[in-house]
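does this look right to u?? S-adenosylmethionine version
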Amino acid sequence: MDSYGAEDLFQAQAHLYKLIFNFISTMSLKSAIDLGIPDTIHSHGQPMTLPMLVLALKIDPAKSGFLYRLMRFLVHSGLFVKTKVGKRGKEEEEEEAYDLSPCSRLLVQGNAPNLTCFAQCVFHPALSDPWKLLADWFYREEVNPFHCTFGMGFWEYGSENPEYGKLYNKAMVRDSEMMNLVIRDCRSVFEGMQSMVDVGGGNGAVARIISEEFPDMKFTVLDLPHVTGDLEDTENLKFVAGDMFHHIPPADSILLKLVLHAYSDEDSVRILKKCREAISGKGKEGKVIIIDIVINEKEEKHELTDPKLYFDLLMMVAVTGREREEREWKKLFLEAGFSHYKITPFFGLRSLLEVYP
Ligand SMILES: C[S@@+](CC[C@H](N)C(=O)[O-])C[C@H]1O[C@@H](n2cnc3c(N)ncnc32)[C@H](O)[C@@H]1O
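got this back:
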C-alpha cells in the first residue's frame, strides 16, 4: 500500500465503487424496459420532454423528479440521448427532450432487430440466480453454478420449464435476426452449397434468413425434441428432432451458430467430428460454418472485449462452455480432423468461421 499515493487510492476507490455498483446499470436498464420507455418514445415519433414522458407512462407527477434522475443515468449510460425541442406554444424557446439511441432502438417491440426478449431471458432467475453460487461452486462437485442452483442442466431446465424454454428460444430468434443486417455481405460463404444442416438451430431463424437469399438450397434444422416440437416444415426447410452428439444428417455444409460456445473442448471436438462425418459426401468442398465469439483482447477495442468476457463467464456459470481465442478454436479444428479454416469478423461481437476438411 505504501507505494501508492493518495491519488492512486482515490482512483482505485472510484474504480472499485464502479465495479460494486455495476448492477445499478443492469437494474436501471431493466426498469426502462419494464416501464416501456423505449416503446413509448418510439410510438411518440419524436423526442419526448420529461412531462410528456411522465404523462405517457401514467406516472404520478410527484415522481417526475425521480424519473428525471433515472433518465439522466440512462442518458449517461448511452441508452437514450438528450436533445432539444421547441417548447409547445413558444416554438422559439427550446427545452430538453429524450430520444432513442441506437442501443434503445434495439429494445423497441415490433422493430426488427429487437433484443428486449434477450434481455428478459438474461434477467430471469434462470440466468441471474446461479451467479449467487459462483464462489460456492469452486468448492462443490456440480459441473456449474446452474446445476448447484437448479439440480439439472440448462437444456433440461428449458424442457421442464416450458415458459422459460419458449422465452429462451424467442430470445435466440431475436438475436439471430441481427443476421439480416449482413446476410447479403456474406453471400459468398453460402454460394455453391445445395444443402445445409443448422445444428442446434432452434426455431430455424437463421436457416429462414439464409433460405430467403438462397431459395434453391435445402435446409434442415436439428435441435432437441422440446424445441422442434410443434414447428412446421416448409418447402425447403425441414425440422429434425435429435441429438447432435449421436447423429447429424448429411449435407454440403453444417452451420453451428452459438452452439460450440456452450460446450467444453472435449464435447466441442465430439460435435465437430460428427459435423465432419455429415459433410464427408461433399469431399474437400464441404464445410462447417461457425458463428461464434473469437476473443482477441490484444487487438480489439476494450468495449468489445467486455461483452465477450461476460459471455465467457455466462457460459461457465450456465452451461459448461467457454468463449475462445483463435488459437483455442484452431486446436479444436485440428483435433476434430479439419485441415484449415478462415475467420471473418462479420457480426460485431461474433465472427464467422469457415472450417474445411
Ligand atoms: C445457444 S442456442 C443457439 C440457437 C441458434 N443456433 C441461434 O443462434 O439462434 C443452442 C441451441 O442448441 C440446442 N441444443 C442443445 N443441446 C443439443 C443437442 N444435444 N442436440 C441438438 N441441439 C441441441 C439448444 O436447444 C439450442 O436451441
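The CA atoms of residues 124 and 164 lie 8 Å apart. idk if thats expected tbh
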